[in-house]
Every structure is written in structure tokens, then in C-alpha cells.
Design brief:
43% of the residues lie in helices and 16% in strands. With 263 residues, the chain is α/β, with parallel strands linked by helices. The chain binds zinc ion. Zinc ion (ZN) binds next to loops.
């Protein structure tokens, strides 16, 4: 099992981060992708540091989250480029980036501008993108389509319906990532997405410390809980869990060009 999306750089892990990482290893999580964006520019530095300390087990992505779009400027862009160039061995993607019209912490026009800048960054360094899109489906799809010849990526914590999911796959070749939301009682739309999307196009993630799956809802989420996402996907697909793990893990490894560590 791989946790393809988590935020171990969140301060909620400051007091017991190593224990959380050990628990993930013990529970059979073979690889973790830690998302750098969402905590200002500094969140990227912390994400890289955590990946460095756990080389070969944790990889990092970097970027500017739509919530932080208003903080972006030329200086930040220069720093991001330098960061990528100096850490090519552990940075495996740009993310999470995209649009969030639910909170609108940054002006939508600014969000779109920064989103495009992040996509140029991904193209310049030939890295996949991890997309956050909330209540912005049409604009996200349109902007990604502007550069579809060169982009590859994943729709993180996908919240759209089955038709939207299939459109991302068929027209953009993007993967669809399923979080612990799929274990919630009211997750009918996400269950339909899992049913409709072939296993070859699915990812699993925790988005920890957020979106804790059942039966741990209400607790802080952590990478070891990704097991419940895999289990739920297997149940919906009526497939055995080993098959689901093998296929999803190879999807994730393919996109991020990572290899599962031998343990
Ligand atoms: Zn996230």
C-alpha cells in the first residue's frame, strides 16, 4: 500500500511524527508521498526535510496551494525553482495546486494565474501535477486542457461525479485519487466514481491529518489509515485486496517515477 497524498509537515504531527511514520511502516505502507504546499512557502521546505530524513520511504511534492495564491510573487517562484533544482532526487511532483472556490481565501483570478504558473513549472521540470479542485470543476478542467499535450497528473481527493471522473481520464489522461471520504456513510457519489473508474486509473490517499476514514472518524488521520481506503475500494470493486493494492500501487509508482522500497 502507498499513501499517495499526506501532510506530515502539518504541525499536528510535530510531537509524534516519527511514531506516525513507524506505524505506517509497521502497517505495511511501503511508500509515502508528502505534499509540500498548503502551508505557505515554508511548508515546502518542511516537506523536503521530512523526505530527506526518510530517504527512499518518503518523497515530496512542492508548490503553491490555491489558498496561498495571494502570497505568490516572482521571488517565491525563483525560490521554488531553486528548491526543485537542488532536490531533484526527492521531489517527485508539483502540488497540490489548483483552484478552490469554496473558501476563496485568494481571489479566483489570482488563483487561476498562480495555477497556470505552477503548470508551467511542472512542464519545465517534467514533473507530474497533484490537483486540488473544489467547486471549480469547469475552470480546473479548462486550464488543465490548455496544456494537455505535456501534462500528467492526478485529481487529488476527487469530489466530482462519475462523468467528470471519466472526462479527466479520457480527455486529459489524469488519474483519479480516492480518499477516506469513500468510507463515509453519505459518500454515494464517490462510491459511484470508484465503480465507474477502472482500477488502472485509481489512486488511494489519506490526505492526513484531514479526512479520517471510518472507523476512525473524528480522530487525526495518518498514513497507516490508508489501509481503509484500499479495503473500501476492494469491497466496492468486488476484487481481492492484493489485486487492488498491486494495480493502484503501480499506478502511483508510474506517475511519480518512484519505486516501492523492498520491505
Ligand atoms: Zn491535501
Amino acid at each position: 500500500m502507498i499513501d499517495s497524498h499526506c501532510h506530515l509537515n502539518d504541525e499536528r504531527f510535530d510531537s509524534d511524527r516519527d511514531e506516525v511514520i513507524n506505524r505506517a511502516r509497521e502497517k505495511g505502507v511501503s511508500l509515502i508521498i508528502n505534499i509540500g504546499s498548503g502551508y505557505g512557502f515554508e511548508g515546502n521546505l518542511k516537506s523536503i526535510q521530512i523526505a530527506r530524513e526518510n530517504a527512499g520511504y518518503i518523497y515530496a511534492t512542492v508548490g503553491i496551494h490555491p489558498h496561498d495564491a495571494k502570497l505568490f510573487n516572482n521571488d517565491i517562484e525563483r525560490k521554488l525553482r531553486k528548491l526543485i533544482e537542488e532536490n531533484r532526487d526527492i521531489i517527485v511532483g508539483i502540488g497540490e495546486i489548483g483552484l478552490d472556490y469554496h473558501y476563496n481565501f485568494s481571489d479566483p483570478v489570482v488563483q487561476q494565474e498562480v495555477f497556470r504558473k505552477m503548470l508551467y513549472l511542472a512542464r519545465d521540470y517534467d514533473l507530474p501535477v497533484v490537483i486540488h479542485s473544489r467547486e471549480a470543476g469547469d475552470d480546473t478542467f479548462r486550464i488543465l486542457g490548455e496544456g494537455k499535450n505535456n501534462l500528467r497528473g492526478v485529481m487529488h481527493c476527487f469530489s466530482g461525479d462519475r462523468d467528470e471522473a471519466l472526462r479527466y481520464i479520457e480527455e486529459l489522461g489524469f488519474y483519479i485519487s480516492i480518499s477516506g471520504v469513500v468510507t463515509f456513510k453519505n459518500a454515494l457519489k464517490t462510491v459511484e466514481v470508484v465503480k465507474a473508474v477502472p482500477l488502472e486509473w485509481l489512486f488511494a490517499e489519506t490526505d492526513s491529518p484531514y479526512l479520517t476514514p471510518a472507523p476512525y472518524r473524528g480522530k487525526r488521520n495518518e498514513p497507516s489509515f490508508v489501509e481503509y481506503v484500499y479495503r473500501k475500494i476492494a469491497e466496492i470493486k468486488e476484487e481481492n485486496i492484493e489485486n487492488v493494492e498491486r494495480i493502484i500501487d503501480s499506478n502511483i509508482n508510474r506517475l511519480f517515477s518512484t519505486l516501492t522500497s523492498p520491505e
